[in-house]
Design a protein that fits this description.
mainly alpha; 67% helix; 0% strand; elongated
C-alpha cells in the first residue's frame, strides 16, 4: 500500500484508503489511529506537530494526551537511564 503526502492533506481521504486495510486485518480505524500515533512518536521519533498534521487533530495535545501511549520498552529504558545516574 503506497501512501503519499497528498493523501494526508485531502480531508478524510487518508482514512478512506486505510479503513479497508483495517477491515481486512480486523483492526478498527480508531485502534489503528492510536497505534499510528504511538508508532510515529515513540518509534519513528516524529515530532508531535507533524503527527498532529498526519492525524488531522486540532492540537498536538490531543495527539499526545489521547492517542499516544507509552510503550513498556520506553518506560524501561527511561528508568534504566535514571538508575544509571543514581549509581554514578
Amino acid at each position: 500500500m503506497n501512501i503519499r503526502y497528498s493523501d494526508y492533506t485531502d480531508g478524510d481521504k487518508n482514512m478512506e484508503r486505510i479503513a479497508p486495510l483495517g477491515k481486512e486485518i480486523g483492526v478498527l480505524t480508531c485502534a489503528f489511529r492510536h497505534s499510528l500515533a504511538t508508532v510515529l512518536i515513540t518509534e519513528e521519533n516524529i515530532d508531535p506537530k507533524t503527527a498532529q498534521g498526519i492525524l488531522r487533530h486540532a492540537s498536538s495535545d490531543i495527539t499526545m494526551d489521547i492517542y499516544t501511549h507509552a510503550q513498556d520498552d520506553a518506560k524501561r529504558k527511561a528508568l534504566e537511564k535514571f538508575e544509571a545516574r543514581l549509581v554514578q
